[in-house]
């Protein structure tokens, strides 16, 4: 039985009903359950979730559904050797996690009407990112895909405001999903040499990548969209700083030549990751031809 | 439930609200002794001051730090006693025109260093293998999460030294500093730098201060040395982590590492820099003993 506590000022029952927390807890329990399998490398000395403490929480928005929760979990084993004898050294997992739920990144390739592949640019945003101490952090647009499969969030709003572009479901190619569906790696002598124990099934991880898997639940899916813009609108955007202040952010939208994307977003993990997926899937012919 | 002091190490005193029941007595000095906080507040200050530069987006209506909050602190047990390891803080900035308020929660944990380790068997021209670590990762809720080797930077860590420590702890391979190629520094060479930012990849800058300098260590080894590395269990480190090594073919890296952002990012940097000939240039310098 897991003991759940909360720091004073944190609404424990609200957190316990909050989507990202319930999903994280369900995924964690599912992963720990896999240890029951005899072939699991931790089967002899499994990790057990003992306590959860909500150390801090911030909520806002409709019904306080948007938020962050900082959780400290105690996850440890009994410290048994492979014969089941206690060694006196239980194994402890680092259990501090910042919960904030899932998100998406979109690589939006824009071509001027009448142009060709050599004219392709990628749409980037720049905005304050206080955790990096930055007032103008360059990234591929990030946000959410809403219930109508449309790219949503403040970056999406800003892009629509500045370019007139709205990215809807049929525009989106789900790069993360395509990558995971790609043929399983061919059996390789080196992988056979690695088979000391069967890796546990990772099906519960979903078709997404984790930004900081040790201490944050954030999983992200990468999408790709291709749009054309009228030549004058394209020229207006290209290299120019735009942006009308919206909500609590000021997001600048800019176009960058596709060949330079790598250097412009060199500090941003999700942008580099989306670029990596795009380049690989394109080279393998797994994205639509434009 | 909270108390407020003045944070003085700023252009003007800033109210700092501190939650009760924290594991240490939070003073300005205690905060500045926490490297992650010190680096973060210093970068924020520098970049806010740069707003005065002619042509800056916020030149005529700059953001001003109005308030700081400390919500929670997680302590690490170190050889020098308990020290803050993670901290949740909040920064509130104001300006005159809309949007007037920027209110952000930050999960401070400092940087890590990661290494893309590529091994080439001496008896082959085209084969490359990558070493990955396989360990439980609670954020991702996995007991076997695959990543390139990485470790958190401590207060006193020199980055290359930490990278070497990680490699040697996990593989028993000996690495010389000169053999490490800083991929992030290479990628950011010649970048127009308007801001004070760490030379690393920011993993999730909306919430985390975490940055990761990425290194490449590319080495020719005898095939049987590579064979000896397979499936070796390493563990019993002070952090009680249990890490298994996996060796995969380089061609599979983007798929097998597809759940880990830093692994995919390191692949992107390696491919991009390799394509521009910069990796081979650096490897050549290493081989002939001219170290950059």
Mind explaining what this structure looks like?
The complex is a heterodimer of chains A (about 290) and B (about 290). With about 290 residues, chain A is an alpha+beta fold. The termini of chain A are far apart. Helices cover about 25% and strands about 30% of the residues of chain A. Chain B has about 290 residues and is of the alpha+beta class. In chain B, a hairpin with an 8-residue loop joins strand 11 and strand 12. In chain B, the strands form 3 sheets. In chain B, strands 6, 7, 8, 9, 10, 13, 14 and 15 form an 8-stranded mixed sheet that branches. Mean pLDDT of chain B is about 90; it is low at about 235-240. At the A-B interface, helix 2, strand 2, strand 3, strand 4 and strand 5 of A face helix 2, strand 3, strand 4, strand 5 and strand 7 of B.
Report how far apart the termini of chain B are: 54 Å
Number of strands of chain A: 14
What Rg of chain B do the Cα atoms give? Answer: 22 Å
The CATH superfamily label of the largest domain in chain A reads Nucleoside Triphosphate Pyrophosphohydrolase
């Amino acid at each position: 039985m897991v003991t759940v506590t909360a720091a004073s000022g944190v609404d424990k029952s609200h957190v316990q009903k909050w989507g990202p927390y319930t999903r994280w807890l369900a995924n964690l329990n599912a992963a720990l359950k896999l240890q029951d399998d005899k072939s699991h490398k931790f089967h002899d000395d499994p990790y057990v979730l003992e306590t959860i403490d909500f150390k801090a929480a911030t909520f806002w928005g409709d019904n306080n559904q948007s938020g962050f929760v900082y959780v400290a979990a105690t996850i440890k084993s009994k410290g048994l050797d492979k014969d089941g004898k206690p060694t006196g050294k239980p194994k402890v997992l680092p259990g501090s996690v910042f919960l904030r739920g899932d998100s998406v990144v979109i690589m939006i390739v824009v071509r001027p009407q009448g142009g060709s592949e050599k004219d392709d640019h990628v749409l980037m945003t720049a905005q304050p990112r206080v955790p990096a101490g930055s007032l103008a952090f360059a990234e591929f647009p990030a946000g959410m895909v809403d219930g109508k499969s449309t790219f949503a969030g403040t970056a999406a709003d800003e892009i629509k405001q500045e370019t007139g572009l709205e990215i809807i479901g049929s525009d989106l190619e789900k790069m993360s999903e395509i990558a995971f569906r790609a043929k399983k790696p061919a059996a390789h002598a080196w992988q056979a040499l690695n088979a000391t124990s069967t890796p546990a099934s990772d099906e519960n991880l979903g078709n997404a990548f984790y930004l900081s898997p040790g201490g944050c639940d954030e999983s992200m899916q990468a999408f790709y969209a291709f749009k054309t813009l009228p030549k004058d609108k394209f020229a207006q955007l290209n290299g120019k700083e735009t942006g009308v202040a919206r909500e609590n952010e000021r997001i600048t939208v800019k176009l960058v030549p596709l060949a330079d994307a790598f250097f412009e977003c060199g500090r941003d993990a999700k942008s580099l990751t989306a670029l990596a997926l795009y380049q690989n899937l394109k080279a393998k012919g797994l994205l639509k031809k434009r | 439930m909270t108390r407020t002091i003045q944070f003085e190490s700023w252009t003007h005193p800033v109210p700092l609200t501190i939650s009760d029941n924290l594991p240490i007595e939070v003073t300005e000095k205690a905060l500045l002794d926490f490297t992650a906080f010190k680096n973060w507040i210093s970068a924020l200050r520098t970049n806010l001051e740069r707003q005065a530069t002619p042509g800056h987006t916020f030149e005529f209506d700059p953001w001003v730090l109005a308030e700081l909050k400390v919500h929670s602190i997680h302590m690490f047990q170190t050889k020098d006693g308990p020290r803050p390891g993670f901290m949740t803080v909040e920064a509130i900035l104001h300006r005159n025109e809309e949007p007037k308020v920027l209110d952000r929660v930050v999960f401070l944990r400092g940087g890590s260093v990661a290494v893309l380790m590529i091994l080439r068997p001496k008896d082959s021209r085209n084969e490359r293998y990558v070493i990955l670590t396989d360990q439980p990762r609670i954020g991702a809720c996995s007991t076997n999460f695959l990543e390139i080797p990485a470790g958190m930077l401590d207060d006193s860590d020199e980055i290359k030294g930490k990278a070497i420590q990680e490699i040697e702890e996990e593989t028993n391979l000996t690495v010389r500093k000169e053999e490490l190629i800083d991929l992030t520094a290479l990628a950011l060479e010649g970048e127009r730098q308007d801001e004070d930012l760490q030379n690393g990849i920011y993993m999730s800058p909306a919430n985390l201060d975490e940055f990761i300098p990425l290194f490449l260590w590319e080495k020719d080894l005898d095939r049987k040395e590579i064979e000896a590395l397979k499936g070796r269990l390493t563990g019993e480190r002070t952090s009680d982590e249990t890490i298994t090594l996996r060796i995969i073919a380089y061609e599979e890296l983007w798929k097998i590492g597809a759940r880990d952002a830093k692994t995919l990012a390191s692949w992107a940097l390696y491919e991009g820099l390799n394509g521009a000939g910069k990796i081979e240039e650096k490897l050549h310098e290493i081989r002939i003993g001219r170290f950059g």
